[in-house]
Amino acid sequence: xxxxxxxxxxxxxxxxxxxxxxxxxxxxxxxxxxxxxxxxxxxxxxxxxxxxxxxxxxxxxxxxxxxxxxxxxxxxxxxxxxxxxxxxxxxxxxxxxxxxxxxxxxxxxxxxxxxxxxxxxxxxxxxxxxxxxxxxxxxxxxxxxxxx
Length: 148
Hints:
- It is a single chain.
- The chain is α+β, with helices and mostly antiparallel strands.
- Helix content is 35%, strand content 32%.
- It folds into 2 domains: 2-61, Ribosomal Protein L9, domain 1 (3-Layer(aba) Sandwich); 69-147, Ribosomal protein L9, C-terminal domain (Ribosomal Protein L9, domain 2, Roll), CATH 3.10.430.
- The protein has helices at residues 23-30, 41-72, 95-106, and strands at 2-5, 18-20, 36-38, 77-81, 88-93, 115-116, 121-123, 125-134, 137-147.
- It is elongated, with a radius of gyration of 25 Å.
């Protein structure tokens, strides 16, 4: 019996997959739990339309992420901090402070968890950091730590 999975089934496949299963498995497990629907012509056409819409949505999100990457890489972000002698900071620059600097510089909200700090920023100077703007897209921004 051919079915379209409406949800991920661990041993069978992922949502949207067309699978061939025994009638008993379909009738007694998958259909009553709402995990699958029969693969009729109408359902297959509906599935194709959903996949087309999903592809279009993903392309739009990817284009927005590319535009954000270009924007973030266009100029450096300035982060003011209190310093002592020798340009040493009192504490360290956090991802939240960098996200606030990005919001001030570009007017764009960036989640602090998407900022990749590989080293602690404890001195005045320029640093290169990564910002995850999409699943497989990393923007490299320049952060300048300056004294207040």
